[in-house]
Amino acid sequence: MEQLFIPGSIIADYFYLGLFLLVAASLIAGYVDAIAGGAGLILIPAFLMVGLPPQVALAQEKLVSTIGTVAAIKNFMKSSSIVWRIVPVGIVAALIGAFVGAKVILILPVETINYIILAFLPIGLLATLFKGVLLKKDDERGEIKKSAVAVFLTCLIVGFYDGFFGPGTGSIFIIALFVINKLSLLQASATSKIFNFASNIGAFVAFLIAGKMAFLIGIPMILANLLGNHFGSLHAINSDGEIIRKVLVVTVLLIIASMAYKAFSA
């Protein structure tokens, strides 16, 4: 199995600048992801900007996000915000959905994937924006709905999207848990991290088998993402979810800037 360590397209005079930008993007993405989801909306455009091939960009996002999410999960577990009753079924469904989604994207031509990324980025962005409107007021929630079928189907579908593309997955998970399962905003944010971690693992395995991981440049990015997730999750817990809506505004502005740069530099 051939592994990619440093893509040839960024081995040049701008390698260190590119690596610095990737580390900075990973730090910001970790912070944002722990609070509101949507790390891929920052990471994938950043990877494409420095010249990573589309499949490697999608795989690298899983490498960074999978490990980075651990810091957020640890803090949310300490705060008792995770709703463990619905976790087992959701984990299995997210793993299966993401693995299948990643296998599908791996068989598509590179040119097709470029178009898919351009088409799906607005979807992830809309999910993030929609969450900000939908969750504008986090009222007292009723009894949590624990329907195994609803949890399984939700995590299977969102997991497939995560493996196939990814950006916005955290936001979509939070919306689904808030609306379908009646979790509070903080509970939905915390529990979504478990499901997102599972879907990341499913996609990670598929990309690893295909040899699409750039491990060497991934190490500093993982460390930065862990740090971002750590502080982001602490901020979300201490603010009892209020910070989520505020960070969404910053996330959207960052994505617009990233997409504009990609469009005008093409």
Compact description:
Keywords: Cell membrane, Membrane, Transmembrane, Transmembrane helix, Transport. The protein is built from 10 helices and no strands.
Provide an overview of this structure.
Its main location: membrane. It is a multi-pass membrane protein. It is found in: Cell membrane. There is one protein chain. This protein is an all-alpha fold and 266 residues long. The chain has one domain (8-265). It has ten helices and no strands. It has helices at 15-36, 39-49, 54-78, 87-106, 110-134, 148-164, 169-179, 185-209, 215-238, 242-265. Helix 2 runs antiparallel to helix 3. It is globular, with a radius of gyration of 17 Å. It starts with 14 loop residues before the first helix and ends with a helix. Mean pLDDT is 76; it is low at 1-13.
Topology:
Blueprint: H1 15-36, H2 39-49, H3 54-78, H4 87-106, H5 110-134, H6 148-164, H7 169-179, H8 185-209, H9 215-238, H10 242-265
Helix pairs in contact: 1-2, 1-3, 1-9, 2-3, 2-10, 3-8, 3-9, 4-6, 4-8, 5-7, 5-10, 6-7, 6-8, 7-8
